[in-house]
């Protein structure tokens, strides 16, 4: 869960203050190593990071500031001037996810910044036509017909005489930087709803997305069985 929530809930918000951090004494709070690694590829110095590891289960930490110092909490609302949602997340309810509307406004900027700092040759990516199928490759929440979906995709490309190459990836077996690289090469990204598909944050403008989701009937069966 660390990877997908870093992409969906941390990185886009961190990008909004990147320019403020550079050359200043301000620091951004991080919680896990991958957040620090990604921030460095966005050009943010370690001197501008303060890592506070998540406490163990049942514990908590209190973050305080010295006198005359300021601690700013980043939180966004709906953009209409209304009050921020306060309802706690629960199964069947909703959460304060308005901030995720930011993700696809700045995703391409994040992708380009990472590519620049990784030293990737942009001209090598131009015109690259890859269809990327993101597989689960795990036992938990396994898709019973994932291989059938992959084979169907292959047959459809062949039947329609498409020139794109089909790349099947187990995202969880790649480094985060490898995942960014493959997503940037993609003309179309396919995958099941879940952590791997969060990589579309790094997709280049114009990339197509096909997300595989369970049917309402299947969801009811899963809920009934707990």
From TrEMBL:
It holds the Pfam family Glyco_transf_61. Residues 3-210 form the Glycosyltransferase 61 catalytic domain. It comes from the Eukaryota. InterPro entries: Glyco_transf_61_cat (IPR049625). This is Glycosyltransferase family 61 protein. The lineage of its organism: Eukaryota, Sar, Alveolata, Dinophyceae, Suessiales.
């Amino acid at each position: 869960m660390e990877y997908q929530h870093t992409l969906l809930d941390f990185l886009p918000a961190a990008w909004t203050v990147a320019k403020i951090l550079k050359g200043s004494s301000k620091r951004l709070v991080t919680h896990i190593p991958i957040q620090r690694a990604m921030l460095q590829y966005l050009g943010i110095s370690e001197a501008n990071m303060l890592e506070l590891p998540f406490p163990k289960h049942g514990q908590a930490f209190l973050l305080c500031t010295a006198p005359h110092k300021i601690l700013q909490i980043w939180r966004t609302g709906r953009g209409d001037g209304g009050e921020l949602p306060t309802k706690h997340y629960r199964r069947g309810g909703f959460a304060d996810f308005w901030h995720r509307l930011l993700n696809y406004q700045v995703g391409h900027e994040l992708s380009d910044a990472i590519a620049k700092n990784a030293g990737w040759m942009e001209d090598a990516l131009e015109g690259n036509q890859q269809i990327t199928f993101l597989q689960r490759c795990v036992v938990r929440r396994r898709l019973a017909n994932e291989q059938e979906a992959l084979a169907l995709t292959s047959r459809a490309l062949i039947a329609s005489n498409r020139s794109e190459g089909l790349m099947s990836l187990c995202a969880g077996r790649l480094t985060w930087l490898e995942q960014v690289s493959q997503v940037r090469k993609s003309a179309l990204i396919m995958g099941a709803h879940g952590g791997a598909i969060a990589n579309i944050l790094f997709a280049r403008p114009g990339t197509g997305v096909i997300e595989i989701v369970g049917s309402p009937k299947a969801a009811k069966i899963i809920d009934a069985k707990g």
